[in-house]
Design a protein that fits this description.
The chain is α/β, with parallel strands linked by helices. The chain is 22% helix and 26% strand. The radius of gyration is 21 Å and the shape is globular. The termini are far apart. About 2% of the residues have low confidence.
């Protein structure tokens, strides 16, 4: 195979995300360049459906694909790039890493300390505090809980780079970790290890901080990572992160409902999810193909500690919620959650399209799905980062609840939330 033309390679991009807001017809598209090792040369475009079509392939560009992108006289042109030499090499690299990491899967029903997780779930003396870090447009939450000398640190998603303006927010995460050390009585020189890391889905604004955590040794061979390794995402950045997780010798658990254990429940997905038919590997009898968007493959994670619960829905959109509402997993738990991280950064897409099908509660609007007895909603992201984020209707709805709305964008570094009292501090 001849070496690809350098100029042509400069026009090759990985499609990280295609966000289609309900209001308006302009999609937000994020492209990562093949030639840039750290993604800073990415492009964020706002294009309509016709502009997303390719000149040499039917249909529109899709998340997880490689495409050639060119501009000419203010016109945008895409062409299919998955068959390029570079893209095929990236796919091979990802597939190799995938096979190696799948060998590190552990069975939670056999290898988890279920007695401990049951105790953590119901303990009346467990002190639980969560930290929701201001990382611009992105998600980053840390849960710290302790009882006597025993403590653990769990983390749900981690972004430190806002890809819409390329601002680095790692100083905010470090400030949060310093506060956690003080809470645990640790000196600044003592290591801080993440016991469990949960990744809702493989969009850059949810996973890019994983590289920082490994490089700074917050994640090591004592960490269990809940990641859907079956979902194909062969960007240079994500592949680089998977390689670092491999070298850190972490263990993995697949975040699906069958792997729920006591304090950790996965309300979605109900089975293994692949990106497309072409990426199916090690298929179990029960699986499905996600197609677009990736957001609807988000793991919806319910953490219950000390009798209090918090739900992390990632970027689940209305189709994903509607899929959940066809079973008990959605409504019976969302109604009972104490704290809720607003899905998809306050987008109008990030809630059920219709009231839950099997719950006989009055619901004047779909947003009321998680309103009942909610102690605090938490909104993560940056207003105006993309078209449709935040949606004024969503912000207005949650802001008018008696409990009020926590917004990480308003925090200098992070928001500290005590679960038992419901008290939040902006720091």
């Amino acid at each position: 195979m001849e070496k690809e033309n350098k100029n042509k390679l400069q026009n090759l991009y990985f499609v990280d995300s295609v966000f289609n807001p309900i209001e308006g017809d302009a999609s937000s598209v994020t492209l990562f360049p093949a030639v840039d090792d750290k993604e800073q040369g990415s492009r964020v475009l706002f294009l309509n459906y016709e502009q997303l079509k390719m000149t040499n392939h039917s249909g529109t560009i899709r998340e997880g694909w490689y495409v050639y992108y060119n501009e000419n006289n203010n016109q945008q042109y895409f062409s299919y790039g998955n068959l390029s030499q570079y893209a095929r090499q990236q796919f091979r690299t990802f597939n190799s890493l995938q096979r190696q990491l799948l060998d590190r899967h552990i069975n939670p029903t056999e290898e988890e300390d279920t007695a401990l997780l049951r105790q953590l779930e119901n303990s009346k003396t467990l002190e639980v505090v969560s930290y929701h870090v201001n990382v611009g447009h992105g998600n980053c939450s840390v849960i710290v809980f302790c009882e006597g000398s025993f403590y653990q640190i769990w983390m749900i998603d981690c972004s430190v780079i806002d890809k819409s303006n390329w601002r680095d927010y790692s100083v905010n995460l470090e400030t949060c970790f310093e506060a956690i050390k003080q809470r645990l009585g640790k000196s600044n020189n003592e290591p801080l290890i993440i016991d469990r890391f949960f990744l809702t889905h493989t969009h850059y604004d949810h996973y890019n901080g994983l590289e920082y955590l490994v490089d700074k040794h917050y994640i090591n061979n004592g960490t269990v990572c809940y990641v859907n390794l079956y979902y194909h995402c062969a960007s240079k950045c994500y592949t680089r992160i998977l390689d670092k997780l491999k070298n850190a010798d972490v263990r993995f658990i697949e975040p699906i409902s069958d792997n729920s254990v006591n304090a950790i429940r996965f309300l979605h997905p109900e089975c293994r999810i692949f990106r497309s038919k072409a990426t199916v590997v090690g298929a179990s009898p029960n699986y499905r193909i996600a197609n677009n968007p990736l957001n609807d493959s988000s793991a919806v994670i319910m953490i219950t500690l000390g009798g209090q619960s918090m739900v992390f829905p990632g970027d689940l959109e209305y189709k994903g919620f509607d899929n959940m509402s066809k079973s008990w997993k959605c409504s019976s738990y969302l109604f009972d959650s104490d704290y809720y991280v607003v899905s998809h950064h306050g987008s109008i897409n990030g809630h059920p399209n219709r009231p839950c099908l099997n719950v006989h509660h009055p619901m004047p609007t779909p947003l009321c799905c998680v309103e009942n007895d909610l102690r605090k909603p938490i909104l993560m992201g940056r207003d105006g980062a993309y078209n449709g984020i935040y949606n004024p209707q969503v912000v207005d709805f949650y802001s008018k609840l008696p409990c009020g709305l926590i917004s990480t964008e308003k925090a200098p570094h992070y928001v500290e939330l005590e679960w038992r009292s419901g008290k939040e501090l902006y720091k």
